[in-house]
Amino acid sequence: MTIMGEFLRMMKERKLHFTLIDPDKQPPEEAGRMACAAMEAGTDAIMIGGSTGYTLEDLDATVKSIKDKCDLPTILFPTSAGLLSPRIDAIFFMSMLNSCSCDFIIREHSKAAPVIKKLGIEPISMGYLVVEPGMRVGEVGHAECVPRDRPDLAVGYAMAAEMLGMGLVYLEAGSGAPVPVPPEMVRQVRASVSIPVIAGGGITSPEQSRAAVEAGADIVVTGTVVERSEDVEDALRSIIEAIRV
Ligand code: 1GP
């Protein structure tokens, strides 16, 4: 079964949690230890990527360290066609729906697609929507961020993503955002599409992860909380338990 097929099977039974590890934020060895702790805490997959600051060598070493220490699927959270690790299991093949640059909507994808096929990496089709404040990814991706009080705009983008055949929609407040995507926006998007909805950016507490799944998110992503915690397993366990009650 494909990795996405397995996620769809799991989502019939429960909500999922993915851990994001940014190769720019720690040495590869440490990334491997973090992934191992996240697996012990019950996370379902390791996403690897970040907006800036790392080379292909950094990325590849980080993927290798994570795969050496942890059996979970690894998913590249990409920035550009030039940063593809041959070791990764899958890639979010994601169009930044509200970017003002063709590069992030489709142009980088046209360069990456032949390489992804050649390397045998599983592409997971996704519409990626940046919501205020958007943080670094909003800047780098030239996103026209969806205002927090405009869930109707998010609904339109999500419906368009589904009609274009994308398999997931990701509502992103930006890594390190002071507030997550508003639960009301997640709720309206969930009510408007039948593809799975991912919520990420600014989720640092069990209450926030619980609010995201109560609003209808199928997958919750956390990254910064892992980087900032002395005890990764302990910090993640409560966030993950909150989506499973
Ligand atoms: C960022 O949604 C992810 O792309 C995770 O965000 O780092 O704020 O958890 P955080």
Structural description of this entry:
- There is one protein chain.
- The chain has 245 residues and is α/β, with parallel strands linked by helices.
- It has one domain (14-243): FMN-linked oxidoreductases (TIM Barrel, Alpha-Beta Barrel).
- It is built from ten helices and eight strands.
- It has helices spanning 3-11, 28-41, 56-69, 102-119, 135-140, 151-163, 183-192, 206-214, 224-228, 232-243, and strands spanning 16-21, 45-48, 74-76, 90-96, 122-130, 169-172, 197-200, 219-222.
- Strand 1 (16-21), helix 2 and strand 2 form a beta-alpha-beta unit.
- The chain is globular and about 45 Å long.
- Residues 20, 172, 175-177, 200-203, 221-225 line the site of SN-glycerol-1-phosphate.
Give a short synopsis of this structure.
With 245 residues, the chain is of the alpha/beta class. It is 45% helix and 17% strand. It has an eight-stranded parallel beta barrel, surrounded by seven helices.
CATH superfamily: FMN-linked oxidoreductases
- Whole-number count of domains: 1
> Remind me, CATH topology?
TIM Barrel
Mean pLDDT metric: 96
Total beta-strand segments: 8
Strand arrangement across the biggest beta sheet: 1-2-3-4-5-6-7-8
Shape summary: globular
